[in-house]
UniProtKB/TrEMBL annotation:
The lineage of its organism: Eukaryota, Viridiplantae, Streptophyta, Embryophyta, Tracheophyta. Pathway: Porphyrin-containing compound metabolism; heme A biosynthesis; heme A from heme O: step 1/1. It is found in: Membrane. This is Cytochrome c oxidase assembly protein COX15. One of its GO terms (cellular component) is mitochondrial inner membrane. It holds the Pfam family COX15-CtaA. It comes from Linum tenue. It is a multi-pass membrane protein. Keywords: Heme biosynthesis, Iron, Membrane, Metal-binding, Oxidoreductase, Transmembrane, Transmembrane helix. The keyword Ribosomal protein does not apply. One of its GO terms (molecular function) is heme A synthase activity.
Length: 352
């Protein structure tokens, strides 16, 4: 970020026609950029924490939700009351019957931490936002964009509760559709913040070289469809987690003894198979993941000889590295950690 900000700052003050999102000078751009990158990192940690909460099966431990937040149980009596509420849930009756109070406290604290970490993110975003607005650092265009992201973040809490509520009614698991909506919203917030941060510190391709500008345009044309494939793959991972499809086939590259398992189109109507059939959901995710790996590798290959700014080339290389890490973690979890595979796909998408 420091290199990008420095390069972007060269000549911007004297260059006409450049639409800056922060107009109070290089120092202001740097401060706003650090804040936005920090916010994006916080959202990233939220997604990882959500994956861990999923892996530990803690998400249904809190049976109510308050928009303003709530204090955790502070006495034995309060803990007993919360435990009694949990005992009325489908998860306790069908999965955790006989659970001890200490075990309940563990999953409760996991879910409580996830919720409070999200509220802390809201505070961490709102306070600097108000400060920068008061200082006049933020333009109207940037202010509207950030207000939209803040509203989406506030709505994410309600989406999360909407998701959890589906697991407190009949079945002891959340709706895969609601889980996918929750994850998709999280990725939208993360990418929106990260993209905006880059737009602040590097509002246009460095123009010291015309070939750099042309190279950046070529990368953009290639990266947009690749990004779409990555997004679809991530959402398909939520359906794997939501349907507990990871438990069904713990082998790779085959699914059991075959490449394509039986019964992948047994549900009616046909479209349900792609969202609710465990075999089809996992097969789709594997195909999409392989396509993602191939497309990102192709992006790197086709841009090897393109004249690019070092920061752009570094981002491409980092993307390839994270993709390889993603593949390694996914396969390792699939083969060696079958006892937590109910949430493995979501966890793997978290580190993407």
């Amino acid at each position: 970020m420091r290199n990008s900000s420095t390069v972007a700052s060269v000549g911007l003050e004297s260059k006409e026609g450049v639409k800056l999102l922060v107009t109070a000078g290089p120092h202001a751009r740097k401060m706003v950029g650090i804040w936005l990158f920090g916010s994006a990192a916080w959202v990233f940690s939220m997604v990882i924490l959500g994956g861990v909460t999923r892996l530990t099966r803690s998400g249904l431990s809190m049976t109510d939700w308050k928009f303003t937040g709530q204090l955790p149980p502070l006495s034995d009596e309060e803990w007993s009351k919360e435990f009694e509420k949990y005992k009325q849930s489908p998860e306790y009756k069908r999965v955790n019957k006989g659970m001890s109070l200490d075990d309940f406290k563990f999953i409760y604290w996991m879910e409580y931490g996830h919720r409070m970490w999200g509220r802390a993110l809201g505070l961490m975003f709102a306070v600097p936002f108000s400060y920068f607005l008061r200082k006049g650092y933020i333009t109207v265009q940037l202010g509207l964009r950030l207000s939209g992201l803040f509203a989406l973040g506030a709505g994410q809490g309600m989406i999360g509760w909407w998701m959890v509520k589906s697991g407190l009614e009949a079945e002891p698991r959340v709706s895969p559709y609601r889980l996918a909506a929750h994850l998709t919203s999280a990725f939208a917030i993360y990418t929106g913040l990260f993209w905006t941060a880059l737009s602040v510190v590097m509002p246009e391709p460095p123009a010291e070289s015309v070939t750099w500008v042309r190279g950046a345009a070529k990368v953009k044309r290639l990266a947009l469809p690749v990004g779409l494939i990555v997004g679809i793959t991530a959402v398909s991972g939520a359906f794997v987690a939501g349907n507990d499809a990871g438990r069904a086939y713990n082998t790779f590259p085959k699914m059991g003894d075959t490449w394509i398992p039986d019964g992948i189109f047994e549900m009616k109507p046909l479209i349900r198979n792609f969202f609710e059939n465990t075999a089809t959901v996992q097969l789709d995710h594997r195909i999409l993941a392989t396509t993602t790996l191939a497309s990102i590798s192709a992006l790197w290959w086709f841009t090897r000889k393109v004249d690019l700014h070092p920061a752009v080339r570094s981002l491409i290389g980092s993307t390839v590295g994270m993709t390889l890490l993603q593949v390694y973690l996914a396969i390792r979890l699939l083969l060696h950690l079958p006892f937590i595979l109910g949430g493995s796909s979501l966890f793997c998408e978290c580190v993407m």
